[in-house]
Structure prediction request, 70 residues.
Amino acid sequence: MNKGELVELMAAKADTSQKAATALLNALIDSITQAVANGEKVTLVGFGTFDSRERKAREGRNPKTGEPIK
Prediction:
């Protein structure tokens, strides 16, 4: 399911317009993103937990030049 399909399903279940469902979904995503960016942990019981973690750099390749990068 992609974002568009989720919006359609939300609109149908909430008996509202797709425009309103899109606004609500975007507000939810923005709120979670902002909280995690501020170092907070967001837990939605039955759905998931969102938090920020540090990871070691890994090696990749520049697709244009083939040069290794971290």
